[in-house]
């Protein structure tokens, strides 16, 4: 399963990757806006938006890139436990 995480804390990026790997997922993490984001997102199976720590511009860009069949999950908290809970529900 491929996962894209948009938002979250930069200091937690490595932990997000480790959690996703433990759940058997390939992951891309975008904690802050980077040029060409819409091209780099691709066609993930699951997109997680940490809405508390992300700009509106990133949310709009991410939602514009959502392909058919991609599940979008919004979470107000960007903690490791919330990510684990989301992955347990969707994997």
Q: How does this model look, in words?
A:
- With 91 residues, the chain is of the alpha/beta class.
- Helices cover 37% and strands 23% of the residues.
- It has a four-stranded parallel sheet, with helices on both faces.
- Strand 3 (46-50), helix 3 (56-64) and strand 4 form a beta-alpha-beta unit.
- Class in CATH? Alpha Beta
Beta content:
15-25%
Overall average residue pLDDT: 89
The helix/strand series, from N terminus to C terminus, equals EHEHEHEH
Radius of gyration: 12 Å
Number of strands: 4
Order of strands across the main sheet: 2-1-3-4
Count every helix, treating DSSP H or I runs of 4 or more residues as helices: 4
Q: Tell me the count of domains.
A: 1
CATH fold naming: Rossmann fold
* Major sheet details: 4 strands, parallel
Which term fits the overall shape? Answer: globular
Give a quick summary of the entry.
By secondary structure, the chain is of the alpha/beta class.
What is this structure's SSE topology?
Layout: E1 2-7, H1 13-22, E2 26-30, H2 37-40, E3 46-50, H3 56-64, E4 71-75, H4 80-90
Parallel strand pairs: 1-2, 1-3, 3-4
